[in-house]
Amino acid sequence: MTAQIDQILRKHPEARRDSLIPILQEVQDAQGYLSREAVVKVGEFLSLPASKVYGVATFYNQFRFQPVGRYHIQLCRGTACHVKGSADVLDAVCRLLNITPGQTARDGLFSLEVVACIGACGLAPVININGEFFAGVTRDSVAEIVDSYRRKADPDGQDH
Amino acid sequence: MAKIIDRKCCDRCWHDAHRPCTDVIACLLDGPLCHESDDCGRIRRDEITRLRRQKVDRPVVFVGAGTCGLGAGAGKVLAAVRQYLQVGQIDADVVEVGCIGLCAAEPMLDIQLPGRTRVSFGSVQADQVEALLGGVLSGQVPAAQVLGQFRPDDGQQAWDMLPYLDEHPFFAPQTRWVLANCGVIDPSRIEEYIARGGYRAFTAVISTRTPAEVCQAVEQSGLRGRGGGGFATGTKWKYALATPSEIKYLVCNADEGDPGAFMDRAVIEGDPHRVLEGMAIAAYAIGAAKAYVYIRAEYPLAIRRLKNAIAQARGYGLLGKNILDSGFSLEVVIKQGAGAFVCGEETALIHSIEGKRGMPRPRPPFPAVRGLFDRPTVINNVETLANLPTVLGEGPEKFAALGTAGSKGTKVFALSGKVARTGLVEVAMGTPLRQIIFDIGGGIPNGRAYKAVQIGGPSGGCIPTQHLDIEIDYESLKTVGAMMGSGGLVVMDEDTCMVDVAKFFMDFIQRESCGKCIPCREGTRRMLEILQRITRGRRNETGLDALERFKGVMYLNRLAEVIKDTSLCGLGQTAPNPVLSTLRWFRDEYEAHVYERRCPAGACKELITYRIDAEKCKGCTLCARKCPAQAILGQPKTPHYIVSDKCIGCGACAAACRFDAVVVE
Fold it and tell me: d(Cα B28, Cα B18) in Å, to the nearest integer?
């Protein structure tokens, strides 16, 4: 964990304040979220108080402070998706996984994030699971999609 | 393969990798310029025809692999194509292109056979690939899936009986300047962009014109910012050029935060070099040696294509130090946004690049005078920059010839929502809205009626039926209480509730408000609360709630005016627009919600009750199984009923019922 952060920091010699966001993005890419330890370490590296680092990190929607699930679901709530019924899809996903946006399911398999717009408005409503896009999802089809990932994680079909 | 730019045709050529000739691009396209030789000219023409794919010696399969294409299944189509070619041992090229703009027909696949024109197929699924490819390769084109064929170039024979793509109702009314190459060329190869005239304007500009002349030309063209504000681009550049400073910056704003807009993503994915060329021209015009692209992290494919394009342009000497020995240097750096809508605002974007919280600051001083790291900075939107190769390549007069009095050139609109053909549409300024929605977009699907179109995202407004005939430009939209914004057009039909839409935007804005100034931070939250109360049912309502609700309704208009007048930045000043505009055109819907607690569109869940018609119910138990709240009771083969206290109003039962037994009230 710490070694990974050090490795990232070494890639930014002579880093100044303007490197803060790129460094945080790299740390989150590597670890899936920003741990308390990472925030402090990045602050020390850039000679910034941890509070400032935390202040920047919490301002932006991209940064998370809890680990994500094995399958991270991004659900688009842009205008086109809203008009085409993404609120229903969101409701269905929340019920299926028993979590609210921003949370990770207890078994660590799924986490849910609501994003402003994925930019695939022509195919609304859209969800994105670990980089794979699903277009025109409905209340029913989202259940099948989630099931397919569940089977992928546990091919024997045993219950968790 | 040696880069085409490094190649000398013969000993008489002046060009050299170490002392490059500034005319190199023009020379490649029309050359040779420095000496006369039929042979050298023929070699060049052959190369260009090959790169433009006017002449192919084996079949080429193009797959539209933009983000939207991939979402629709282009990845699987691509895999199926590769497998088919491998199994059949067929010698053919497979090219991943960007998005041509017709999202509704994704995944799209084009096939070009030697000596024939390129044919586009729409809605191709992976399991249809085998039949499709097999058919076309043996000369049989399955007409059902054909969208159209391209116009024949020299030496190409058109297919009989197939329509032309530019006659397709989606493409016919369009004027494609910015999107000219999108979905046509391979975005990962700079050679294909150059073969279609790319970088010609830039190389001509740095060798023959002064920065002041470039600014003048852009001002003369009448090009205005395509990101929302609509400020004259040339004028902005002149301010930056006139401010003395050793270091200046150019920023390309690709933080396309507007929900409902995706043209910047599509342009970067489909034609990244056009944006880079535009940036290089802009940087030269203001005297910047460093440029940033501030792009959303949500666009991974666009970032990848852009990185690749920057590396190629550097390799070609079109970016970097002393470009083509002109003395002009430019470094382009990608900065990934971290997801904050307010960072589309210039000063907030600057703070974000500097590594701070993305909060706006009061202007003046404007960024063109004091911006990034306190240096003069010009911030231009992707589409604005993508217009520059046209403005300087074709001349400002040609650009200004298209459009209306105050708005010149074309505009790309992202058409989405309840419309038959969704996608990216580029039309001349001044095109009637009706033509965009009904001719290009194909009207409203499922026989529903048009209600409104939302333009300009969270800062814009809705345009109702009675104003469908306005000719879209920056000024005309303001007269109906909307604005151009970045050009997202979300079409709504009679099933869309306008109060719900206003609530959706207020929810978005209050979450994205940076919190710096009070009117926006507190005001937008209060507005959201008022709208939430309006759309709430009587269930569990106390006397105080009813009073608060009514008070909110009375103050809604005044609150909106205060937020508009007193907010610090553009986000706050335009935040009440979705409410004001829906209130102006759809007052009756607000009144139905306020007085009758009824949602005419049937979209506000809390105002709807569901009931099962015992006469029609066959007792199939489908609704009970679909109900997420277990609110439906009943024995099989006997009529069911809904427990109203348990019902959450999701509508799953109504959608599931095959006998229309669920009544919505």
Answer: 17
Name the nearest CA neighbour of B598 among B549, B537, B511. Answer: B537
CATH number for the B410-496 domain, one of 1.20.140.10, 3.50.50.60, 3.10.20.600, 3.40.50.720? Answer: 3.10.20.600
Average pLDDT (B307-320) is 94
User: Is the domain covering B609-664 a CATH 3.30.70.20 domain?
Assistant: yes
Number of neighbours of residue B360 by Cβ within 10 angstroms:
24
Is the pLDDT at B284 greater than 60? The verdict is yes
Please give the backbone phi and psi of residue B109, each rounded to the nearest 5 degrees, phi first: -140, 130
CB contacts of B578 in chain A (<8 Å) are none
Structure confidence by residue, pLDDT tens digits, A73-118: 999 998 999 999 899 899 899 989 999 998 899 888 999 999 888 8
Q: Where are the domains of chain A?
A: 2-59, 71-152
CATH for the stretch B499-595: 1.20.1440.230
Nearest to A84 by CA among B200, B103, B257, B17: B103
Least confident of B252-256, B265-269, B481-485: B481-485
Identical fold, B410-496 and B499-595 = no
Q: Residue B336 is nearest to which of A16, A25, A92, comparing CB atoms?
A: A25
The Cα-based distances of B399 to B321, B374, B390 in angstroms read 31, 34, 7
Q: What is the domain partition of chain B in residue ranges?
A: 60-167, 190-400, 410-496, 499-595, 609-664
Q: Per residue in B59-103, pLDDT tens?
A: 999 999 988 888 888 999 999 999 999 999 999 999 999 989 998
pLDDT over 80 (residue A130): yes
Phi (first) and psi of residue B339, to 5 degrees? 85, 70
Tokens representing B468 are 């469908």
- For helices B587-596 and B518-534, angle between their N-to-C axes, nearest 10 degrees: 60
User: What is the domain class of A71-152 according to CATH?
Assistant: alpha beta
Residues of A in contact with B488 (CB under 8 A): 79-80, 121
Best probe of the A interface among B357, B510, B608, by most A CBs < 10 A, is B357
Which of A121, A127, A139 best probes binding to B when mutated, by most B CB atoms within 10 angstroms? A121
Closest CA to B578 of B260, B362, B253, B298: B260
| Record: contact B258-A117, CB cut-off 8 A | yes
Residue of B73, B357, B488 with shortest CB distance to A55: B357
Whether domain A2-59 has CATH 1.10.10: yes
pTM: 0.92
- Name the residue among B299, B418, B457 with its Cβ closest to that of A119: B299
Q: Compute the C-alpha angle B523/B526/B532, nearest 5°.
A: 145
Chain B CA closest to residue A88 = B650
- Contact: A22, B335; criterion CB under 8 Å: yes
Please name the CATH architecture into which domain B190-400 falls: 3-Layer(aba) Sandwich (3.40)
Q: Looking at the complex, does the CB of residue B395 fall below 8 Å from at least one CB of chain A?
A: no
> Mind listing the pLDDT tens digit for each residue in B152-176?
988 889 998 899 999 999 999 999 9
- Structure confidence at residue A38 (pLDDT): 95
pLDDT of residue B4: 73
Residue B18 clears pLDDT 90, i.e. is over it: no
**B60-167: which CATH architecture?**
3-Layer(aba) Sandwich (3.40)
Do A79 and B297 make contact, defined as CB atoms within 8 angstroms? no
Please give the residue of chain B at the shortest CA–CA distance from A98.
B628
Q: Does B315 reach chain A within 8 Å, measured CB to CB?
A: no
Size of interface A-B (CB pairs under 8 A): 157
B606 in contact with A, Cβ within 8 Å: no
